[in-house]
Amino acid sequence: MNLSLYGYGDEWIAIDCGMMLRQDLPDSPLQVPDVGCLTPLGIQPRALILTHGHEDHIGAAAWLWPHWGCPIYATPLAAGLLRAKFLERGLAVDAIRIVAPGDALESGPFALRYLPLTHSIPESCALLLTTPHHRVLHTGDWKLDPEPLIGSPVDQRLYASLAPVDLLVGDSTNATLPGWSRSEGDVARALERAIGACTGRVIVSCFASNLARVLAVGRAAARCGRRISLMGRSMERMVRTARDLGYLEDLPQLVPVRDLGYLPAEEVLIIATGSQGEPRAALSRLAQGRHPDLELQAGDTVIFSAKAIPGNERLIERLQLALKRLDVGVLEETRHPELHASGHPAQDELRTFYGWTKPRRLLPVHGERRHQEAHQRLAESCGIDAPLAPDNGDLIRVERTTLSVERHIEQTPHIVHQDQVHALKGFEDSAVQSRQPREGRFYLVLPVLAMSDGWHRVGRLLIDYSGASSLDETAFADWLDDTLKQLDAETLVQLRNQLQPRLVQWMNDHLRRPPVVHLQISAAETAS
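and the corresponding structure tokens:
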């Protein structure tokens, strides 16, 4: 999650408003920053400034912005993605104002300028913040990519013209890594070589927001004589938004997924979501043989063009094992690093950038403590003062010659649950069922089998539901099958104890008036 607040006198602005997925909680809910602590401090942002369109920078805005009601400034792609989120929640979009990279704006005592930087999504920008007494460069996420595929490389003269800056608030994600991050141009050539060597269908899974990667895959497919199709709602939405803004104009014509069965396998390439092993994403459905339009076959190849996000390793491992059981080839980043490029700067990029901007002080953000500390050491080796590695909730005073933590404000994790933001405490407690108004009863009799890859439902759903809210039994069955395979219970009793709170949570999240839930699990009989 990314949410930074800058204050001068009594005036404040917020920069970015991101969320994270809690893979350790049932149904992987969204976690958003705790903004309840701001009111007692008298902090009410007069503007929300967005650096780029990634979920960890804009994903919480639709939940938290209603507390502020302030103008929101974003580049066109980020603004388009945010508008879609606001409309889904029934929020007015009048507050979203488009700023082109390179533009300047003012908010109270702050003068801000959007400065283009390359990253793994178009239109990423650093922000130069100027007050009567400070010049701060807030980099956001960035890298120095000489061949970004979409957009131009970073303008050295532009950033050198800023030198020296008083404070640089900088990306620490890859500060432990030597050298330079790989260029998107290099990845594009590696993908073309890999795709050219494949014989059956090819499925490339990457982050939907990495439009340069999507473009690279599309171009490689065309050169290798393959037709391309998109699989996954987030991928389709991202590509549609990008095309509306004039990006991806040379992406080859798309084939609807439902028509792929008419094409020879060697002419098919699919760009799919699900590189992080998300159970309900397109790639997991393919691996489990549950996609309505396509079935993977022996000799097909899946290319993972994305790095595992920490915490997702187990899900990804399960997904890749399921693909291999189908005799599908798997090319992934650990054995084929050339198939992915990070969007963050390694050590030589940091040194180069700091040579241009000449910051007097550094505040290392993003990453974990070890990344921030590595960033501090690198800065100090460049003659830059880096006295702090901040924690979430630190209130930091920036003086002319000092940088100090004035106080620490404790942060309480907050979860999005049933279209509302709640404190995490008690989230997993099945007693949440009794705290909410219930309507009707839901009885589920569930025959299951324990197999090598987890628990499996046997036969059709046996449901007796008396509630008035409509129940999407197909979506529920898909969720149930995904969830069963993730549970590590060894007995039916353990399985029921693990499944019951997740079942209650699903009902809470999908039905306007969730019912009282009754679950009975039995061992299915196997054929002798």
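(Above: one complete record from the training split.) The CA atoms of residues 203 and 302 lie 5 Å apart.
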